[in-house]
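USER:
Make up one protein:

ASSISTANT:
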Amino acid sequence: MKIDGDHIKLDSFLKAVDAVSSGGEAKFLILDGQVRVNDEPELRRGRKLRQGDRVTFAGNSYQVE
């Protein structure tokens, strides 16, 4: 997914790629350890993603461009 600016927060990114339906759902799944960023578990919903980062969730992988 291409982003405007230099970063996007993880919870916003998950909503933008339609991986979740709401911010609340994103928060729960992130805190539950179900989301990985660059192959590492990520528990911070406000994690700033930048170009080149890869987010993995529920068997799907999304590249930040």
Summary: The mean pLDDT is 96. The chain has one domain: 8-53. The first helix runs from residue 10 to 16.
